[in-house]
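Support case: user asked for a sample of complex input and structure output to validate their parser. Sending the pair below.
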Amino acid sequence: MNARNTDTKEEIVRIGKELIKLYGYNAFSYADISKQLNIKNAAVHYHFRGKEDLLAGILEDYMNDYISLGKQLQASGLPAIRKLEKFIEKYSCLVDNKSICIIGSVASDYNTLPESVKEKTTQLIELVLSMVEKTLQEGKKSGELIFPESPRTQALLIMTNLAAGVQLARISGKKDYDTIKRALIRQLK
Amino acid sequence: MNARNTDTKEEIVRIGKELIKLYGYNAFSYADISKQLNIKNAAVHYHFRGKEDLLAGILEDYMNDYISLGKQLQASGLPAIRKLEKFIEKYSCLVDNKSICIIGSVASDYNTLPESVKEKTTQLIELVLSMVEKTLQEGKKSGELIFPESPRTQALLIMTNLAAGVQLARISGKKDYDTIKRALIRQLK
DNA sequence: GTCTATATGTTGATAGAC
DNA sequence: GTCTATCAACATATAGAC
């Protein structure tokens, strides 16, 4: 049963991650998750005592994802612009799935999030921002990338373009997102 | 009673606008509104049959706000950069009130919004985007503003910087938002 | 015309069955 | 250890009182 437990718990997190990007923290319920797993909604409480514990689990899983992506890009030896393009590609996928990024999702719902997880959202954002910042720094140093702002500021600009870009795309369509994406990359060379 | 009716209805919209920027459409309830007005939650249903009707009212009110702002700026005769700064100032106020912009709010909740209002969100975004676009165009023509992209693309970049900027500010603080704001203005000259 | 008492459904969560 | 029957609280919404 231990194997199955682990499976169920992982499945809950996987579905939770999908739902929070599709609907936001407040707009999905344990029932939405349990239905997909053919169990009762209350069963989710066994794996995650309350919804805020699930949210903490979801955020931790995202942090692991980004740490993993960072290591992968680091090991790839790709030029900085390619690393950034790989990163941006993740956002393009979100658009195709009618989803927004986890950062925009928790930021939009921030005032309603349980206190216990607010610190984790800060950590997640810092993690992602510093990833982008480092890659920009690297590209600037090698002369591969040219941009007027500091790497930190440029990272903020890029991240906000992407985060709100995927949000906008839900309403005004993928065309606007693609416009933003292309302009973004163009401005780095 | 007619005067009082109008008052109550206007008050409901005013409070609704605050709440949707603070918590999002799904995270506020008729009870949150009725408490502030010292009436019962069900009384709100008299003025707005259902929550989606209230949302429609809120969005229409925002459209009037932006049309009004547009006319005001147009009549001001200010240089384009000043007009944009006035526009950006609205976003700085949002940060101080721990709020996000209506566009980011409805975009984040878009997948859960009633079908009847989705078209209105598109109209609202188009309205705001075209306002910014026109001002950019005007500044470019007069040589006052210098930017590499088309006015439409530049408007998309600015709007996404602002929309996600205020979201980010909730979590990582106003400092990051101010950094974005300054970079934004710097890049137009 | 304006608002309240009440209904109905859904939510997150507890206690306990297997 | 894993999940289900059940609950109390809150959501939106209707019927009807004043």
